[in-house]
């Protein structure tokens, strides 16, 4: 404790006495000290806090600091916020005041005297800090940190201003905020709340219309809206939705194609050719169209394409005629397509289909049915569609400052066609936000407890009796709704006790990882997670290289029909921070003309970084814009990294794939049966004359899996993987799946197999910008560009025996396994891949119900880079005896490492091997890693650079590794 306290005191001494350091820089470093103190005090806690205000609140409660001391800490926090965002200029007297606050807080926390050289510079008089408490009649938005509640009030500390007294917040007020009564029941101490549309009475009591729980945990609007089912809107609908696979059905395909039709008609300057549109649909969704099981029936297939043509005509009619009709006044010439919004006020994010540039109107399109039965002879929008539209309306009000009463939202049902003008219902919006809060409370509770038993009680809520809140009965409920709910419960109950605890532990791990990735974490220095987009100061972003700003438009090709892009010039910044961007990165782009502009109050465009140099950056825009003025040439812009939820969705769906997997595959993964091998290879393996022949023979002999350790410079990709591919390809009709964690590693695989002679054909699944230009002709979209029919897509994929891609790209295209069964999957960089990331691939089934992947070869090195995990070791540690018995000790470990530790104890195991001849390091350089990590098994190949004498190494002393 003494060393830690001295470290904090010494840091403050260094900050104060450091010459040529500006006051702004001193504030930055003092804030870092406070952040470090908060994090150190939270190390053994499971609490997840995104905001420094909440962490200070926790610190105050833990250390028993007084209200006055808490008030001073918050004063320092707010002052540093303003300075680091460039909204205020530092003053010497304020700096000394805040230095004293931090110093005395350290003394109170750690009960250790202040060093004299620090104490003598502190002001002796207490600074008079004006109270931030103001009584107003109305406040649009207020963020608070919850402390406790009684029967009448919530008591909370303000986040954006410093007050010595807690705020009193009246709740459960009829026709004002009683919709949030269940939210209040779920609150925990230090939870962050956004209060919206707040009235303040003469006694200073706050009465909000909206209470938003943990607003930095953003939920997708469409996902939230889908929780409003025909049978009810229980929070467990959210859990069920993320676990069930996205089934590639005819309605889903039709919706994607209808969106393409809308884009085409919005951009059209004349007539649009239907056949040309369908050709684009084949290019965009080739595997989905070819693999859709609904279309195997010729009658359904014919009906599907008739439906496509009907939607095409209806969209044409609406865009060309209805848009201009009196009362609508929709101008497609001035439309924005697929703008995204991040609404921190409501804790929501989403992407609209169509928006007028002045935000006066927007359209959300639906290709499915409306409610045809609620009112006889009349078509009404379904509740989930209405919720989705109203939530976007609320986002425009609370993020973009639009008066919702002056915005005209429409639901466009393309099958009728019907352009339905919505009637705002703030009561329904409140119901939706309350449901959002309950979902967040569920997610928080699961990651907080991190306990299989607790999670089991939550998942047991997924049952038809619990979710049927409306008490439906009859044929529609029994035949169409109830079975999909019951199927989950039945699958889970079918699992063995070991399988259940494995499932629940992985569910907890993924939930914790997702919660942390959204909200940030309490362990690492600096900010992480999606919330850093609006919580990090500009200074923090600049120092981390996570923002490029003051960018100016030099070329605007946002309206180009194919591969639209813009080029922005990068200014010379007045600091040495290096941008942390590279080609292929997924980014958000927004107008930034003042320090107040950020992703939460500007229209956001998603895209990819195509290239970056010292003075310019090229951005590929995801949605082509008809009007280039959507991105004004006289505006300034900023780009930041986007954070995607797709990897978590894939992992959750991998858990469902595990439940549905064949029993023998589940037994294999959980070591309930040993891997099988063809022992007819034994003689050849024993007589193999080099490493590569031996490991290739072992890969051929494996009938379930084989693990290969490839230390640095041993040729695991360029030689071993290549030789395995050659061997498997030589077997008639053998189908090979090649995977890696990163796109760069996939480029290396492509390079390796491209050198095989005679040349082999392969298809790469992935995006153009993430693929080396040399291999782009192998991309799926290019390989299938000439296909005109579903059958041609299926034939081309069937005829190509090698498919290559990242684990993520294949896990998100599991329709592939309906078209193709693979004899073997070879995964490079396997030690960087988490176990749940592989489940949707290893547990996939083909159309006949057999394993879609026969066996798998894992290549990696667990002594090098591990999987990237945000949560700490303690959170990922396994305590359940059933899992410990099969070698699962930490969920941060890869499947490779777990299985290797199981088999690697014996040198003659058929399941494992190691490449031992390395051609990269000089033997003297290799000496330490060879002994420390590889048991002295590494040998040098004897290349020229390995035979040269190194003069930079001092004379060898006693070797600690030999003791």
Multimerization state: single chain
Overall structural class, as computed from helix and strand content, comes to alpha/beta
**What would you call the shape?**
globular
Q: Count the strands?
A: 30
What amount of the residues lies in strands?
Answer: 15-25%
Radius of gyration: 30 Å
Helix % is 40-55%
| Poorly predicted runs of 5 or more residues | none
Task: Return the average pLDDT rounded to an integer.
Answer: 89
Q: Strands of the largest sheet, in order across it? A: 24-25-23-26-27-22-28
Task: Report the total helices.
Answer: 37
Biggest β-sheet strands, sense, barrel? 7 strands, parallel
- How far apart lie the N and C ends? 33 Å
Structure, explained:
- This protein is about 40% helix and about 15% strand.
- By secondary structure, the chain is α/β, with parallel strands linked by helices.
- The two termini are about 35 Å apart.
- The protein is globular.
- It is built from 37 helices and 30 strands.
- It has a 7-stranded parallel beta sheet, with helices on both faces. It has a 6-stranded antiparallel barrel with strand order 16-17-20-19-18-21.
Which characteristics define this entry?
963 residues; alpha/beta; six-stranded antiparallel barrel; 37 helices; 30 strands; 41% helix
Set down the secondary structure blueprint.
Blueprint: H1 2-17, H2 23-41, H3 52-63, H4 67-84, H5 92-110, H6 116-119, E1 138-149, E2 153-158, E3 167-170, H7 181-185, E4 192-200, E5 205-213, E6 219-220, H8 221-225, H9 236-243, H10 250-267, H11 274-284, H12 286-291, H13 298-320, E7 335-337, E8 340-343, E9 348-351, E10 354-356, E11 361-366, E12 371-375, E13 378-380, H14 383-398, E14 408-413, E15 418-421, H15 426-449, H16 452-459, H17 464-467, H18 475-494, H19 497-519, H20 532-535, H21 538-544, E16 547-557, E17 565-569, E18 586-591, E19 605-612, E20 616-621, E21 636-641, H22 646-660, H23 663-669, H24 682-687, H25 691-701, E22 705-709, H26 716-729, E23 736-740, H27 743-754, E24 763-765, H28 780-783, H29 790-799, E25 802-806, H30 807-811, H31 816-819, E26 822-827, H32 835-842, E27 853-860, H33 873-876, H34 881-884, H35 895-903, E28 912-914, E29 917-918, H36 923-933, E30 939-940, H37 944-947
Parallel strand pairs: 3-5, 6-9, 11-14, 22-27, 22-28, 23-25, 23-26, 24-25, 26-27, 29-30
Antiparallel strand pairs: 1-2, 1-4, 2-3, 4-5, 7-10, 8-9, 10-11, 12-13, 14-15, 16-17, 16-21, 17-20, 18-19, 18-21, 19-20
